[in-house]
Design brief:
Number of strands of chain B: 4
Radius of gyration of chain A: 17 Å
Largest sheet of chain B: 4 strands, antiparallel
Number of helices of chain A: 7
Oligomer: heterodimer
Order of helices and strands of chain A: EEEHEEHEHHHEHEHEE
Order of helices and strands of chain B: HHEHEHHEHEHHHH
Helix content of chain B: over 70%
Bound molecules: adenosine-5'-diphosphate, magnesium ion
CATH superfamily of the domain at 1-71 and 190-224 in chain A: P-loop containing nucleotide triphosphate hydrolases
Shape of chain B: elongated
Largest sheet of chain A: 6 strands, mixed
Strand order of the largest sheet of chain B: 2-3-1-4
Number of strands of chain A: 10
Radius of gyration of chain B: 30 Å
Helix content of chain A: 25-40%
Number of domains of chain B: 2
Strand order of the largest sheet of chain A: 6-7-8-3-9-10
Amino acid sequence: MDIRLSGITKVFEPDIVALEDIYLSVDSGEFLYLVGTTGSGKTTLLRLISREYLPTRGQITVGDRNLRKLRSSELPYYRREVGVVFQDFKLLPNLTVFENVAFVLEAMGIPPKLVESRSNEVIDQVGLWRRRFLKPPQLSGGEQQRVAIARAMANSPAVFLADEPTGNLDLRTSEEIMRLLLSINASGTTVIVATHDQYLVDAYRQRLVELHNGRLKRDERRGRYFVDGEL
Amino acid sequence: MASFRYAFRDTFRLLFRHWGLSLLTLLTAASVLYILGFASLFAMNMRYMISRIEGALVVQAYMKRGETAEQALELVRSSPLVLSVRAISPEEALERLRAKLGNQAQAVTLLGENPLPWSLEIQVQRAEHITPLVRDLMVLPSIEEVLYAGKLVERLATISRASSAVSGIILMLTLLISTLVIFNTIRIAIYSRKEEIEVMLLIGATSTYISLPFVIQGMLLGAGGAILAIFGLWSTYSSAIEAIRSTLAFVDIIDNRRILAQFYVFLFAAGATTGWMCSWLAVHRFTSQSMRSR
Ligand SMILES: Nc1ncnc2c1ncn2[C@@H]1O[C@H](COP(=O)(O)OP(=O)(O)O)[C@@H](O)[C@H]1O
Ligand SMILES: [Mg+2]
């Protein structure tokens, strides 16, 4: 699904301007890095796309949905099409890896047999097959990150948002995770990755959008540069 | 359908994760419903007794031997308090006596000449009409004796009004207590799964799906409490019936299986409904708060 942000401003009470007048267009099946220093507004942008937040001004459309007009009864169905890897993972510590993935599918009313086979499939895909009965506190940071990715991809979302998925990870683990995200993108999913990992951005060249103090600073597609506002 | 399976599984997880709390809630609901049931049964019985006696709000006036009932009949017919009146001849009275005696009917023949007088069977509308009517009848020279159950009925009516009021208050109190207890238990259960619920909302679970285990939990606690209360009431009530039968045989107590069964079903429904509504309220409040976009 494609994503269009037009004139997006997000102000937090009382007067923190997290994003200001953002225009951004992401086509279906695109891969995009969202970069910027801490506090530049990356997480806020992702949360606007997943409809955790509503923009103060401007419109966001994802596919044929205008997020501002989304009714609360439609929200769950929208969120099923958007897989999110949260910056803090949001894994449930009392559930095993398998259960952490399975409960998302269960919540969608998928029958138990299918839940089991699909959970196993994605757990295998992220390389955690032998860890599937461990709980998050027993896993390393990189492993937890991969559980979060497995959970977000379990129901094959059309849009995949990852918030600093390689933060605090060593180089080899980061590369593994990058390859995972690229493989998700290869199946036609639109992927947005918020990161401040310069190495990855250079090593796996993809479209790059930079935020600075809540404003769009550059939008670079395969080497071409767009100065802000010139989209 | 799969959703219901998951919901039931999660319900039992919830119940057992906080088994102490579940047990406490169950017992509270049970005792509260027991008190409610007891008060209602008492009020029902009072009303039943009165209706039985009021159904027979009959004043019987016996003539002196040899007198006919005509004079008394005239007086009674002119009274607005009277619902109906019937003159009973000595022959009819004898027939009735025979019927009542059943097996021992032959004994009547031993009486020889019919010794029974004329009498009037007067049905009044309300218990309080009895006293003035009796006063009027007593002055007639043809009247030998007037029999009626007036005082008893009046007293019963007072007790009945009081017991209805008390059971009304108890109804309010018990509903309030069970609501608060179940609501609170569900809230604790919700907070124990707070993180999980928030993640579920974020990944696209509907609030119905999220609510289901909690609503089922509340219903089970309410219904379970009701079942315990019904068992308690049933055994108390049957032994009460036994005790009353053997000591106060003249007291009419409800012993109709259908009425009692209906009452127990009602109590069960009240428990389940209270549980359902409380838990729905608690969980709905929580999800709509978490869902609100900032
Ligand atoms: N829920 C919130 N309430 C108030 N301020 C917020 C909230 N979320 C983010 N902010 C502020 O918005 C700015 C952008 O934050 P964020 O989007 O988290 O940046 P990044 O993810 O790029 O580090 C920061 O100044 C942050 O303090
Ligand atoms: Mg962030």
